[in-house]
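Model it.
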Amino acid sequence: MSVLLGNKEYFKGVGQVKYEGPESDNPLALRWYDENKMVAGKTMKDHFKFACSYWHSFNGAGSDPFGGPTHIFPWDASPDAVQRAKDKMDAAFEFITKMNLPYYCFHDVDVVDYTNDVVENEKRLGVLVDYAKEKQKQSGVKLLWGTANLFSHLRYMNGASTNPDFHVLAHGGAQVKIALDATIALGGEN
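Modeled.
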């Protein structure tokens, strides 16, 4: 796998992380995981499906009950939601390929900010699915799984599929369908 850069390099000075063995003193080297090493008849790469999680790596803003965000990411600068999502995906695929990870995974709202309009959400995610397909093709990185986040928005404070408000239930169902369509379109393996 080669490193995939977008229009801007986000992780400057970081090369691709590779196996160098237990004697390496490189802090950005793999010492024990050798993807080509055979263990019980399979390579380590075949045993493990390491994936980069979008939420934990590119969305978590570091806020808590005592204050606002503390992580200000350069890929969040654009005022346009779709462009901001493309910038984030550029950063994600740069990071994933520099880390030499074969997979990534996401919640739908991690990929692109959602509105309260299901049709607009589907349109936005569709644009990013097309963008992700190109990134996957260029890099060889695959989608392990995609799913719908039916817990972060306050509309789901009383549940999603168990919500007594049918409008919330219907919104959740539509969100699940859109996330499943995106996962299938991107060849999600799990």
